[in-house]
Write a sequence for this structure.
């Protein structure tokens, strides 16, 4: 068994073999064995079907989310609070703290029984009877939004103290509803029925939450005893208790509705007439304003026409003089610019002509240089060819043959003269000059032969 592994008191004794049974109050037994969900079925009045519990097993209880359960240890004389979701296992001397809360509308005590305390946010509805200063009794159905304030991040000592404060008031629902109803009854008793009928929401909210230094309704009301905070009050219905008062109120409401309707109709009619008159007045004013604007426009037109005529009569000569001066100035500027452009053109022409001549001369010089170079090369080549030709002819003919060819004429003449028996002869026609070099050479040659 699970309980035998946790609590010594559940373990069976070896001598007798008997199991220790833990007895709980009947109501707690019913709550433990009930199948009602404390969170989902929190408004249910019946406890549902119950199952029998085996008393020798460990007593367990699952604390739902956003809820708390208080367990009291009668041996140690202390209580501990467990916040859900968690699984509670009772020690042999521990018992659950049962909550008996008020329920119904109006609230009645001991209507809801539970082992856990829901921490909210949630709401509770109550019906209270109030009486105004003029003795009109009314039944108010109010719904309060509430939640508990607690701090789970505190140290262990203050944590348990704050957690135990949540269970300081056994019936927090009935206590809160009674306290709030008392505050509301006191506030309503100080005002007449007409004021309460017109300002019921503000009167009830200010009586519950109170006013701050700026006379504004506060946002919440806190019960310091158990950390309960009321955040809102919803006024669901306001009905008279007495039938005669209800009939009178119904008649007065109908009369008020009729008066309000007639007043609204009259107000609407007067408003329509007022708007019509205002529209007519605005239309007439607009006409007058338009006529005034038209007169102003005509006045401005006349002023402009007179100014235009004055400008036209007095400024024509000035305009002509200015136009002539501008024309002469433009002509002068044009002449200056034309002269500058001509000088620039001549300068450009001279520069281009000089550049052309320089380019032509440079080209001609390059041409002459190239021609002279070609002529020199040609002369060199021709000289080299003639030299080669002469050398080839000399080589081909031979030096002796050339010498014989060169002296063949003189030798023939000398032989002819020798055949004639002449020692020396000079024959000339008088027109041909004498070649003394050749003659001397012939003499020398003749002498050499001899």
């Amino acid at each position: 068994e699970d309980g035998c592994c946790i609590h010594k008191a559940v373990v069976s004794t070896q001598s007798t073999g008997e199991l220790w049974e833990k007895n709980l109050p009947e109501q707690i037994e019913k709550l433990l064995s009930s199948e009602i969900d404390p969170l989902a079925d929190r408004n249910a009045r019946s406890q549902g079907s119950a199952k029998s519990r085996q008393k020798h097993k460990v007593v367990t209880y699952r604390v739902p989310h956003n809820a708390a359960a208080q367990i009291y240890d009668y041996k140690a004389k202390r209580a501990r609070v467990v916040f859900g979701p968690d699984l509670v296992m009772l020690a042999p001397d521990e018992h659950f703290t049962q909550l008996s809360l008020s329920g119904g509308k109006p609230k009645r005590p001991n209507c809801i029984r539970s082992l856990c305390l829901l921490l909210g946010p949630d709401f509770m509805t109550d019906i209270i009877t109030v009486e105004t200063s003029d003795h009109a009794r009314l039944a108010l159905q109010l719904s309060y939004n509430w939640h508990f304030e607690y701090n789970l991040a505190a140290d262990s000592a203050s944590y348990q103290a704050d957690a135990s404060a949540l269970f300081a008031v056994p019936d927090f629902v009935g206590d809160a509803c009674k306290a709030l109803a008392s505050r509301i009854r006191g506030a309503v008793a100080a005002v007449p029925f007409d004021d309460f009928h017109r300002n019921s929401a503000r009167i009830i909210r200010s009586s519950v939450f109170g006013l701050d230094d700026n006379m504004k309704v506060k946002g919440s009301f806190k019960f310091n005893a158990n950390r309960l905070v009321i955040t809102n009050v919803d006024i669901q219905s306001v009905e008279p208790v007495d039938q005669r008062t209800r009939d009178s109120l119904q008649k007065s409401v109908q009369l008020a509705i009729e008066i309000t309707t007639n007043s609204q109709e009259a107000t609407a009619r007067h408003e329509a007439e007022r708007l019509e008159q205002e529209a007519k007045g605005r239309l007439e004013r607009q006409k007058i304003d338009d006529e005034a604007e038209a007169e102003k426009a005509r006045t401005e037109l006349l002023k402009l026409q007179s100014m235009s005529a004055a400008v036209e009569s007095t400024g024509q000569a000035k305009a002509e003089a200015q136009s002539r001066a501008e024309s002469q100035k433009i002509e002068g500027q044009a002449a200056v610019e034309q002269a500058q452009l001509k000088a620039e053109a001549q300068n450009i022409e001279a520069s281009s002509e000089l550049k052309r001549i320089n380019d032509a001369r440079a080209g001609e010089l390059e041409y002459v240089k190239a021609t002279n170079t070609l002529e020199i090369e040609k002369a060199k080549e021709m000289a080299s060819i003639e030299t080669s030709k002469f050398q080839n002819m000399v080589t081909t003919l031979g030096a002796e043959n050339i010498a014989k060819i060169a002296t063949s004429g003189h030798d023939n003449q000398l032989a002819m003269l020798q055949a004639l028996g002449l020692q020396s002869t000079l024959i000339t026609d008088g027109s041909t000059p004498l070649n003394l070099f050749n003659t001397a050479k012939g003499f020398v040659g003749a002498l050499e032969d001899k």
Observations:
- The first helix runs from residue 26 to 33.
- Confidence is low (pLDDT under 50) at residues 1-15.
- The radius of gyration is 73 Å.
- DSSP finds eight helices and twelve strands in the chain.
